[in-house]
Design goal:
The chain is an alpha+beta fold. The chain has a domain of about 140 residues: Umud Fragment, subunit A. It contains 4 helices and 13 strands. The strands form 3 sheets. The chain has a 7-stranded antiparallel sheet with strand order 1-2-13-5-6-11-12. A 4-stranded antiparallel sheet has the order 9-8-7-10, with no helix packed on it. A two-stranded antiparallel ribbon has the order 3-4. Strand 8 and strand 9 form a beta hairpin. The radius of gyration is 34 Å and the shape is globular. The termini are far apart.
C-alpha cells in the first residue's frame, strides 16, 4: 500500500510539472495567444490616436470660439495691465469672428463702455491690441485738457494714468475731420489731449488706452469696426516683470499678487 501511494504521488507531481511545461510551450485551448496580444496593442494605439485627435479638435474649437490667451508687451494700458501680464480672453462673451471672414458668431453680451477688449486693428496686419472701449455707436465724444466728455458729461476714470508729457499733434489725427459733430470751418486742429466733439457712427467704436500719454489708440488711427473684436479681457493668469534685467525673470520676477486678478 505504501509503495502504491508513493507511485501515485510521483505521478501527480509529474502531471503538475508537465502542465507547467505545456503552459509554456503551447497555450491552452481557448486562451489568447501572442497574435491576440498584438491585436489588442494595435487597438489601444488606435484608441489613443482617436483621443488625441478629438482633444486637438476640442482645443482648436475652444481657442477659436471660446477662450484665448494674450500677453501684454507695451505699457499703453498701465496700470490696469502691465508689461508681462498674461491674460485669459473670453471670446464667447461678445462673439467671435470666423477666421479670414467678416462673419461673427453671436455672443451672450454686447461690447459695453468700459470693457477692456482685445481686437485686430485695421491699420496694422499681424497685430493684436488691447484697449478700453469708451464710445459706442451714437455717442458723442470729446476731450478737453485730458478730461474725456461723453455725450457732454465729464467722465470719472479712476484707471487713467498720465505722465505730464506736453500735448502733441500728429497728422494721422486728421481722420477726425470726417466725424465732427459740427463743421470746423477748416481750423480744426486735434491734439492728444484736446479733440472733438466726434460722433461715433453705426458699426464703429472708439478705443483709448488707460495710459493716456503713451497710447496709440483711436485718437490717432481712427474708429474701430465692431467685427474686429476678438474678445473681452477677463483675468490675469500669470504675471512677471518682463522688463527686468535679472536672469530668468519669469521665475525670479513673478508678480504673485496679480495672478488671478480680474480686469476692471
Amino acid at each position: 500500500m505504501a509503495a502504491k501511494r508513493k507511485r501515485k504521488a510521483r505521478g501527480s507531481a509529474t502531471a503538475h510539472s508537465r502542465g507547467k511545461t505545456a503552459g509554456r510551450g503551447r497555450p491552452a485551448k481557448g486562451s489568447a495567444g501572442p497574435r491576440a496580444e498584438r491585436g489588442r496593442g494595435s487597438g489601444n494605439g488606435a484608441e489613443w490616436g482617436k483621443t488625441i485627435f478629438y482633444a486637438a479638435i476640442l482645443f482648436f474649437v475652444m481657442r477659436l470660439f471660446l477662450v484665448q490667451t494674450f500677453v501684454i508687451t507695451s505699457g499703453s494700458m498701465e496700470n490696469t495691465l502691465l508689461v508681462g501680464d498674461f491674460l485669459v480672453v473670453n471670446k464667447a462673451a461678445i462673439g467671435s469672428r470666423v477666421p479670414f471672414t467678416d462673419i461673427r458668431i453671436p455672443g451672450y453680451s454686447e461690447p459695453g463702455r468700459g470693457d477692456v477688449l482685445v481686437f485686430d486693428p485695421h491699420h496694422e496686419e499681424d497685430m493684436t491690441l488691447v484697449k478700453r472701449l469708451v464710445g459706442v455707436p451714437g455717442d458723442t465724444l470729446q476731450m478737453r485738457d485730458r478730461v474725456l466728455y461723453l455725450n457732454g458729461e465729464p467722465q470719472e476714470e479712476p484707471y487713467v494714468v498720465t505722465s505730464g508729457r506736453p500735448d502733441e499733434f500728429a497728422p494721422s489725427m486728421l481722420w477726425q475731420l470726417n466725424h465732427l459733430v459740427e463743421a470746423s470751418g477748416g481750423d480744426y486742429h486735434p491734439t492728444r489731449d484736446n479733440w472733438g466733439p466726434l460722433l461715433v457712427p453705426d458699426g464703429y467704436y472708439f478705443m483709448l488706452g488707460d495710459n493716456r500719454d503713451s497710447s496709440l489708440d483711436s485718437r490717432y488711427w481712427g474708429l474701430l469696426e465692431g467685427w474686429r473684436f476678438e474678445g473681452r479681457a477677463a483675468r490675469i493668469y500669470f504675471s512677471y516683470n518682463r522688463d527686468s534685467h535679472r536672469p530668468f525673470p519669469w521665475i525670479r520676477e513673478i508678480r504673485g499678487s496679480r495672478i488671478g486678478d480680474g480686469i476692471q
